[in-house]
Automatic annotation (TrEMBL):
This is Erythritol transport system permease protein. The keyword Membrane applies. It comes from the Bacteria. It comes from Paractinoplanes abujensis. GO terms for cellular component: plasma membrane. One of its GO terms (molecular function) is transmembrane transporter activity. Keywords: Cell inner membrane, Cell membrane, Membrane, Transmembrane, Transmembrane helix, Transport. PANTHER family: ABC TRANSPORTER PERMEASE PROTEIN YPHD-RELATED, ABC TRANSPORTER PERMEASE PROTEIN YPHD-RELATED-RELATED. CDD domains: TM_PBP1_transp_AraH_like (cd06579). It is found in: Cell membrane.
Amino acid sequence: MTDTHVAPPRKAAAAPQPDEPKSTALARAALLLLRGRTLVVLVVLIIIFSSISSEYLTQSNLILMTKHVAINAILAIGVTFVILTGGIDLSVGSIAGLASMVAGGLLFKGFDMPGGTVFFSVAVVILIGIVVGALVGAVNGVLITRFKVAPFIATLGMLYVARGVAQLHSDGGTYPDLAGTEARGNTGFGFIGVDSILGIPVAVWIMVVVAAAAIIVTTKTPFGKRIFAVGGNERAAVLSGIRVNRIKIAVYVISGACAALAGLLLTSELGAAYPDTATTYELNAIAAAVLGGTALAGGRGTIIGTVMGAFVIGFLSDGLVLVGVSTFWQSVVKGAVIVFAVITEQAQQRLQSNLTKRTA
């Protein structure tokens, strides 16, 4: 009897799946579109409004819209720092109003001291206003880190406190005519909100400087990396030696300072300080950050995206006004934009997760 060598049976080859690469390619294309959704929405808005109104893309209107964008963009940049850590800041509008009233009071009636009334230069007044905003932001940070108050509650409370202090500062009145006088040495406040350099409003140049500084901080410094680490996984950040509480306080200080700067720009543009300055501006700032791709859960977002989101919000608002849409419908549209931003941000997360699993 001879032994016969029997080869083991071969496993049937897996049937080719030509649809899988195609579906992956489509998913990648959809992810790319979601990542660039802010730019796509901005282009669509420009096309729609320019087709409705011939004045939309005129040079004067573009400059005016960009000037309005600058104020919201500065607010949104500060809020982005907070959201990147997984927090939220609802008080930025009220902080802007408080800084406005402090600066307006110093310019209009000066600072009473035992030896008489002192009037500060415009540069000092602006610095004081920003410091006030930073201090309020620091209070937010301490409430959240030391007293363990939820960010939503802490900043919501500060929203009312800061607005109330702004109203108490002038007994609900207005500080008009902030032009100052040569004798007091406090002229020139209108420069930051009214004047232009090379045909571009000073407020826009300030926005560019603030955005550039924020981009450098978030992408090129250890502090920026720690911000993302705290927002991505706070527990892991603690275990890696990051002083989480200090990072959180710092981002609320940045948010408060940016809010104060935005309030000063708005006050300079108006030429007067009102207690209700920047009311509800916090909603536009948060919407700009989220629309720009900043995750509300923290750990992901870019300053460039936030600025693009501010352009979308600003160009949308001014476009609605230009074509005669009522203020009530403007609120409806803005709310829909915020919901749309959150939905697309979550869709991007799910798609990114699915693609990661496919390629793993």
